[in-house]
């Protein structure tokens, strides 16, 4: 049986744009675009996991807002349960640590990137919405 992997992703919004992050070439899902975040560890709430992951990956603090989507996608390596939340940066700009590249895009342009398959429902929701604050 495939393992269940619980993942949380941050849809960071700034000036009406959303932060998109590209996975490295050596990782699983190489070069796919995703939302920064990662696996929820045992004993952590989803929110705690998201704050920790963004601090680790982007070296910045966030405020977590509304949940956007919750999807389940079966990859060859496991079943990813992805929950995404709107987030705002509290202080400094994100620093790249493990991603290959980041881009800030208006929601309408999100579908132009090659997203991890688990992200597609969230991308559809976001790109069909009225402009973000
Ligand atoms: N952070 C993040 N992960 C995503 C998204 N969409 C998606 O399918 N994933 C997958 C990729 C990974 O398999 C898993 C996230 O775990 P992680 O961030 O700890 O993954 P990782 O690549 O560093 O670790 P691993 O796969 O090498 O074990 O969820 C997304 O939007 N954000």
Automatic annotation (TrEMBL):
Highest taxon in the source lineage: Bacteria
Magnesium found in the keyword field: yes
Domain called Nudix hydrolase: residue spans: 3-127
Enzyme Commission no: 3.6.1.55
InterPro entries membership: MutT-like, Nudix_hydrolase, NUDIX_hydrolase-like_dom_sf, NUDIX_hydrolase_dom
Keyword Protein transport applies: no
Pfam family, one: NUDIX
Family named by the database record: Belongs to the Nudix hydrolase family.
Name of this chain's protein: 8-oxo-dGTP diphosphatase
Classification lineage: Bacteria, Bacillati, Bacillota, Bacilli, Bacillales
